[in-house]
Structure formats: structure tokens, C-alpha cells
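User: Fold this, then the next.

Assistant: Folding the first:
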Amino acid sequence: MTRAPATFQPLADAVAEHVHDGDELALEGFTHLIPFEAAHEIVRQGRRELALVRMTPDVVYDQLIGMGCARRLTFSYGGNPGVGSLHRFRDAVENGWPHELEVVEHSHAGLAAAYAAGAAHLPFGVLRGYEGTDLLAENASVAPLESPFTGERVSAVRAINPDVAVIHAQHADKRGNVMLWGLAGVQKEAVLAARRAVVTVEEVVGELQPRPHAVVLPAWVLDAVVVLPGGAGPSYAAGYSVRDNAFYAEWDEISRDRDRFAAWMKANVLERT
């Protein structure tokens, strides 16, 4: 599918146009560049029945799940990094609050392979993995496969092609090309696999300057670019901000109680201008 080049939009307009009820949605970013502000706008716009995908669902997905936005979570690790459990995630799985959540669990390597297959527009990815685990029996997106060349038994994992991917990056140029650097997760693969892609960025620059290990996403693989300094907070954007470690520790207490969680989301997300 050929996209028109990305357009610059306000965050509310980009979410309204590109994120719909029932979508399979990937919000990616590994340790840093987590698109918190975009997620909060999704909450404010009241999206529902989302099938969330993320390699490492942490606080950002705890918030989406607790606010009733999600019907399914496809993931390969879930936790509040360096702190402990995701209590809104656990409440949804264990108690069906605010409603039941379907869970699809992968290994890190398996979910990365699924994204890579989606980005390449292949039906599945292949890896040496899943053997000896319960995931082969529990996950219908994984199947054993025999190599036609060597007879070796490997695992096939169904490709992931989200309806929309949302990421955060450091730079965009005036034509809508985007560059991110630092720890890279599967942002590139998620964007290339998705049918629609939204990127929030720290800054627009005249020209993208090459950096070691940087990832450049051309405007023609994106749909919307949103200029949003600080859009990754309380995570960080390498070169622009630092991680708010105190918030992650505080979230452990906030998220344990349903009423305290709801009050925090109302004050800090729903009613924030």
C-alpha cells in the first residue's frame, strides 16, 4: 500500500483521524521514546475495544487497560520496570476490571520476529524458539515448522500488521522525514508493519544530521507527524530528557487502588489542558 507523505498535525487531530475504536494498536518504544502523551490523548478521546500490541507493556499500557480502552493485549513482557507488577493489568486479568482482557503472550524474540514479518509483508516469521515452553500450546499465533532444507524443527510466528502504530522520536525535518536514536526497540518494524503510522517528535530541524545507530523513517511510510516536546515523559528521549524514576516508583502505589488510579487519571490526563 502506498501512502501519501506524512502531514504535520496537532496531536488531537492525528489521534482522531488515525486511531479508531476496535483498532489493533502498537505503541512502541524501548525504555525511552515511549509515546505517553499520545496514549493520554487516546484515553481523552475515549477509544474502546483496542487490541494493544507492545513488546514491553509497562506503565503506559497499565493506564490504557485501567481506563477500559483495551480488549486484548499481545505482549512479551509486562511490568513496571525496576519496580514490580502492573496492577491495572493484573486487575483486568485476575478480576475482569474494568472488563475482561484477552492476553496473547510471546517471547521477546518471537514478537520481534512477528513485527519483522509484518514489516516485510510476509505471512509469518521463523525463529529457534518456543520449543520446551507452554507458549506453543497456549498461543494460536505460534506453530512448529520443519525446515524444507534441513528438516530442522523451528517455530513459525504469525506476522503482526497493526492497524496503527504510534511512536515518539527526536527529530523530524520539514518534509516529514523522522529520525530517532539511542536505544532502539521495534519502532521501525512497527511503523513498516502498520497500515497507519503516527509519530510524535521533540523538534523539527532543517535537515536530519546522521548519527551513529540512528533510524530514519521517510515521510512516505508515515501518515502524521506531531511536534510534541516532552511527549515521552515520564520515560525519556535520549539527548532531550531523563527518565522520571520517582514517578515509576510512585505509580506502584497509585495503581494498586482503583479509586486512587481513577482520581490520578482524571486529574493528570482527562482534565489536563
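Now the next one, as you asked:
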Amino acid sequence: MSAPTTFRLRGPAGDTHQGVREPPSRPHLDRGLGVLELGLGNYQTACQMLQRSAPGGSGDDITVVDPDLLEATVRCGRRRAAAAILDGLAGPAQAAGTPLAMGLLSRSRALLASDDLAEDLYLEAITQLERSHDPMQLARGKLLYGEWLRRRRRRRDAREQLRAAHGVFAAAGSSFAERARTELAATGQTARRRSVETQNNLTPRERQITRLVAHGATNAETAARLYVSAATVDYHLRSVFRKLGIQSRRELFHSSFAHP
């Protein structure tokens, strides 16, 4: 899964405190699950979760801007709402001025742009994200560009972008790997399924439970979300621990399932 991306305008200076990492809060869990659903192409669910996790307030309280909600909103066909999110995203991104911030801003603008402007924005986003040294966000830029190219019947160009994106996502075990694989298949080319999950031979149900628990969900919360019993969750978790060679939820939280 691709981790939620934020622009922090201000932060504590000289904070060198090293403590035990706590499990994520409910908003953080919603953000993580929202991005997971976005990667799987479940846009309505992603939009709902990302809306729940969106920061509120004004002035100094607005310290993060998240382009993931904009992408989910566009994919749900709510372009007016997405345009409002873009208006709020532009100022903080430009104030941050980093390659990552500017790359995500261009990528977000491309999602709402007309065909005669979108391609230049996608290419600008990819250029900036290459400079950011953030491979996951760069891969997401290439995925979106590849999706755009495919829908304009430029299959050869789309394959180049989608292959590159799929390779990064699959190596990281990200949920976006399946979305990239599906898009690549739509161009007439298949991609070998390759991920952390398949390398460890987890079943589909084990993968679902692992994703949720790795992002802080309790057994009861996981059971409620998947419509199974808590005992079933516990059974599958014990199987996951055995297959991954770990012994605790803390190890799972610090694994690539929580931080792809």
C-alpha cells in the first residue's frame, strides 16, 4: 500500500525524542485504509475513509494537505468537489515548494485538466517526483499517466508507464500493484503477480486481515469489517505469524504491510 502523503508546513524544531512507536490513531487508520482501497480501485470506499480522516480547522491547524482524497473524489465522478480540494491543496503545496509537493500538485491538477493540458501536467509531475526520490509517489504518477494514455488508445505509451509502476508496486507489496496489473492487462499485456504477500504464500483472507491489523485494527474491528468472528481473525493471524516468521502484532506493524 502506498502510504498517505502529506505536506507539513511547520513542525517541532530540534525534537530528538526517540520513543516506542504507538499504534496509529483512528484518523491515521482511516487514511491508511483509504489509500489501500484507492489502490484496489474501490473508489467510493476510499473516498469515505479519506473524508473521515481529513484534517479540520484553520490557520496553523491546517498542517497537512492530502492529494489522495482528490484522486478518490475524481474517480467517483465528483469533479466539483475535487476542484474545491485542489484549491485548498495548491497554497500549502506551493508554500512547501519541494519536488514532492510540486509533483503531487501537478499530478492532482492533471486529474482535473482538459486533454490538451493534462499530458504536460502528468509529465511535469513525473519530472518533479523523480527529483523527490519518492519511488512510490513516482510510481503512482506513472500509473495515473498510464491510465490516462490507455483511455486515449495510446496503448504502447501506456504500457511503458504501467510496467514501470507495476514493478515498483509489486516489489513493495502495495495494493496499487493490482490496479496497475489490471490496467496493463487492458492494454493487451499481462504482468506477473509478484508481491510480498505472494512470496509468503498468504491466502486472500490472510492478506485482508494482515493489512487491517498492520494498520492498527483490533481483532474485533477487523472481524466487524470483514463480517467474520474474532476467533476467525485470531486463527488467521496465527497462520500469518507462522508464515511470516514473526511473533507479535508489533512486528507486523513495523513490517512492509504497514509501511510499503
